[in-house]
Amino acid sequence: MARDTSDLLHGTLDLLVLKALSWQPMHGFGLTKWIEERTRNELEIVDSALYKALHRLEDTGAISAEWGVSDNNRRAKYYSITTRGKQLLRTEVATWKRYVAAVTGVIENA
Amino acid sequence: MLRDMDEEVRFHVEMRIAELRARGSSEAEARAEAMRRFGDTDDYRQHANRRAARRARHHRALEWLDEWRQDLRFAVRQFRKSAAFATLAVLTLALGIGANTAIFTVVHRLLLDPLPYPNGNRIVLLTVQTPNRGPTPVSIAAVSAWRARAHSLEMIAAVSVNALLVQDAAEQDTIPASVTSNYLTLLGITPVIGRDFTDADERGENGKVAMITYGLWQRAYGGRASAIGERVRGAEGKSYTIIGVTPADMSIPMSFRQRGAKLHEATPSIWVPAPLDSVGTYGEVFGRLRAGVSAEQASVEMQSIVDSARMVASGGLVPRPAVCCARAMRAQDLIDPRETRAIEVLFVAVAVLLLIACANVANLLMSRAWTRRREFAVRTALGAGRGRLARLVLTESIMLALAGGVLGVAIAWETLRVIIALRPPALANLADIRLESTVLLWSAGISVATGILFGAGPALFAGGRSVGDVLRSETRASSGDALARRTRSALIVAEIALSLVLLVGAGLLVRSFITLLETPLGFEPHGLIAADMLLPPPRIMPQVEKPAVERAILEHVRAIPGVLDAAIGTMPGDPYRAFGTFTVDVDATGQSHAIQELGTVFMTPSYFRVTGMSLLEGRLPDSTRWGAVGGPGAAVNTAQPPTEIVINQTLAHLLWPNGGALGAMIHSGRPRGPRESSVVVGIVNDVHMPGRAGDAPTEYQMPVPVEVPLVARFRGSPGEMAATLRRTIAEADSRVVRQTIVLGDDYFRDALAPTRFAMSLLGGFAIVALALSVVGLYGSISYSVGQRTREIGVRVALGADARAITGLVVGDGFRLAAAGAVIGGIGAVVATRTLETMLYGVTASDPLTFAAIALLVVGIALLAAYVPARRAARIDPTEALRAD
Predict the structure, then answer these.
(1) A5-103 has which fold?
(2) pLDDT by residue (tens digit) across B669-727?
(3) Of B256, B381, B468, B805, which has the maximum CB count within 10 A?
(4) pTM over 0.95
């Protein structure tokens, strides 16, 4: 499946977000921290891009949002994954793996 | 939404700042870093704005839907509670919409889409009509020229049904029609099974092939697919191989009957391919207009092609008289213009009726709007804007209208049944009228439009009222109410005016109809029956045999019990028309007259006795001369004595205005040929068939050896006589191919049918219109009495008696009715001009009819006002002053 640059970026971010939320519901900041930890600070997410991704995923029904109270007693918007989101996650993971395999195949055999 | 997103982001940024500070950065550094981490704020802001707008739109749409559902539910509940109002409104609308649907069906079927073929509107009949000489056959040269050069015609095909080929009654089932190979293509249809004709078939390269009709396929071949390849026997013993079957509803468009010809209507069963040259000579030539080209344009082009061809043929000189008037005629063009006018009038009439229905329902709704003013005030207080209230009212109106539309379809169905029963013969193809999807769409469309139309008024009145005023009990009329009252009155006046216009139109038609009924016919149709027979072609039955055959049949018919007498002849008033120049000798004053068209009736002398006509002067022709060749246009041996003829009064006055017809001679001339002369021996009365202005100049003479019909006078049941007559003729000579039996009563009734059709329908619509207006008037006056209860109570308390109150209310009603009558009268004077071609014996502005209808309308209106007036008179003042 052909993907252009912005598609790629969107897709990767979506994948990370969905995976994160498949563990537990989080708010935007929590997500950032989670991704930074998990990638051992390899990936630095631009915050506005993250929120755009979150909103996009919410609009398409892959995740749902709810206002809640954070650890430090502040109002924060928590996102959780939906059934549809879980399905999407599965698909995206498979696609990602195929993509990686394809690119790897090219660079390793040059 | 925007706030939400901002808060979310603010939380994030603050968390990050806190984290960074916890790691040792200063406030300023932390903030800078946090902003950097955040990214492009402008981009995000754009995203956020767009998203918020999207969400807002989505919500608004959902809200709309929700409100609309609410409105619908509310409306249904309302209607259930005030079932009387809802029923009245729906019925009123149903009448209006139903009438419209019915007439639109007729308009659609006759004027918009008469032919049941795809692209039917582009199929035209190619004709040549010479003024003064009637239709002439289209010459093959002209058709070939058109086929080669006419750009406005995509293709030309021809069909010829030669019933004369059929030898005897047994062969009737296999009447062949010759068609060009592209006939089905022109119509836009394909065979049910098998294949269509090709050019090769036309040229005969594939042997004798034919297609059979669906009917024949079912009847004689059981609908088997294997019929393809079998043989079928046509007329004259010819045998064909079947290559296809044509669809069930295929026929010849614009059949002879529709064009008024009296030829035998033969329905072919076999289609045989033949080249254009041979088919076109005797048959009908059709063309298909190129898309976007009108029939008029095609006619002009056809004429110019013919003209230029003649120019070339005659070396640059166009001989006179030039062939004129090549025409491409659509099916709609074949309808008598009077019928078209009648339909147009009816279309306008039902539109008027619908307007009246709308006005009534608008009035009803406005009254209810008044009753619901508190409800609207509460709604406004709760935040509903004018638009919202308008939407509410409109939803209710449209619901009512759609309900009316559904019921209206049922009413339309019934109306169509009446229309079909009444139809004049010219509109013969109304027989298979159905409610098609186009028509149903139209119905739905006008239902919604109606709903909006009558809902607009009340919708406008719904909002815009000061909430405080309404919630406080107010009994004084505010200016808004005065406007409402004036609007209601105006609507009533308009309704009455429109009803009057319709009634005057109907009244004029009724008087025309009566005139037609009372005009002496000149013959007696009741107890008269005619039989038109088709005899075999000359090679089966030579011309010289025919007089003897006919005499024999005549004797057989005379012998039928119940038959008083019989004679050769056509139904009176419908002669064979000949064109030429007919002159007379110079008379005593040195003048001589001539005519170009002459009607001829071939008859035996007892014809006049049988039909009930009267011989006014002179004597009947000598019946021993029957069988002698003669008649206009026939070659004659000048040694023969001139044919004896009897003429009608019209002909006598035309050729001998100063008298002296008896004994004079008529010479029928042709440019190069012997003159043919007849001598007048008698004069009979004119025949005045309803719907025709006077009688055509007609001569009556002894029969020549061609097919002639016979007429008989009888006693007893017409149906039985028709059957007996048919049987007798078949028994008298089995070679008679076909018979067409017509009863005098039917003949007369068919002639009356156009006027009766227009009169009945317009009359029916006018009466419904009047009824609606009267109901509207009654409702309006009742309502205003209710409004003025207090005022009336005061009057009574101040000493007014019952008569005064009644007079007051009836006076109001009278004023409305009179205003309506005057306006309607003026409108009617203008409107009835469109009826001029349909009237007999009355002018379009006949004062008697106008006055009578005006009196009728005002009288009925007064009656309608009287009932609420009586109620008003009985108002108890104490009750009135107490109540609100």
Answers:
(1) Arc Repressor Mutant, subunit A (1.10.10)
(2) 655 556 778 888 889 888 888 877 667 788 887 776 566 788 899 998 888 999 998 88
(3) B805
(4) no
- Rounded to an integer, the average pLDDT of B61-81 is 86
Does residue B614 sit in helix, strand or coil? Answer: coil
- Read off the pLDDT band of B105 (50, 70, 90): confident
CA distance B66 to chain A (A): 21
Say yes or no for a CB contact (<8 Å) between A47 and B11. no
- Cβ pair B115, B375 in contact under 8 A: no
Q: Is B7 in the A-facing interface, judged by CB distances under 8 Å?
A: yes
Contacts of B26 (CB under 8 A, 6+ apart): none
Beta bridge partners of B679: B644, B665
Range B299-315 average pLDDT: 78
DSSP code, position B346: H
Distance (Å) from the alpha carbon of B397 to chain A's nearest alpha carbon? 38
Report d(CA B362, CA B451) in Å as an integer: 9
d(CA B681, CA B394) in angstroms, rounded, equals: 78
Q: Measured between alpha carbons, how far is B493 from B491 in angstroms, rounded to an integer?
A: 5
Closest A-chain CA to B41: A48
Average pLDDT, chain A: 85
**% of chain B with per-residue pLDDT over 90:** 10
User: Does pLDDT of A36 surpass 80?
Assistant: yes
Q: At a CB cut-off of 8 Å and minimum separation 6, what does B753 contact?
A: B422, B423, B424, B425
Q: Which residue has the tokens 């050729």?
A: B655
For A14, counting Cβ atoms within 10 Å of its Cβ (0-12 exposed, 13-18 middle, 19+ buried), the class is buried
Quick one: B672 exposed, middle or buried, by C-beta within 10 A (0-12, 13-18, 19+)? exposed
Give the largest Cα separation in chain A, rounded: 55
Task: Give me the half-sphere count of Cα atoms (radius 13 Å) on the Cβ side of residue B525.
Answer: 21
The rounded Cα B601 to chain-centroid distance in angstroms is 33
Tokens 């058109």 label which residue? Answer: B146
Spatial neighbors of B192 by CB under 8 A, at least 6 apart, are: B214, B217, B244, B245, B246, B247, B248
User: Closest-CA residue in chain B for A68?
Assistant: B8
How far away is chain B from the Cα of A45, in angstroms, using its nearest Cα? 8
Residues listed for chain B: 884
* B726 closest CA partner among B708, B744, B740: B740
Collect all residues with Cβ–Cβ distance below 8 Å to B369 and sequence separation of at least 6: B376, B393, B458, B461, B462
How far is the CA of B539 from the CAs of B177, B236, B268, B546, in angstroms? 20, 11, 22, 12
Interface predicted TM-score (ipTM): 0.86
In this structure, of B412-421, B489-498, B700-709, the range with the lowest mean pLDDT score is: B700-709
Beta bridge partners of B287: B124, B156
Summarize chain B as % helix, strand, coil (round to 5).
Answer: 60, 15, 30
The residue type at B633: G
- How confident is the prediction for chain B on average, in pLDDT? 81
Say whether B39 and A49 touch across the interface (CB within 8 A). Answer: yes
The predicted-structure confidence for B592-636, as pLDDT tens digits, reads as follows 778 777 888 888 888 899 999 989 988 888 776 654 444 444 444
B169 class by beta-carbon count within 10 Å (0-12 exposed, 13-18 middle, 19+ buried): middle
Length of chain A: 110
Strands A26-27 and B231-233: unpaired
Question: CA–CA separation, B744 vs B687, rounded Å?
Answer: 14
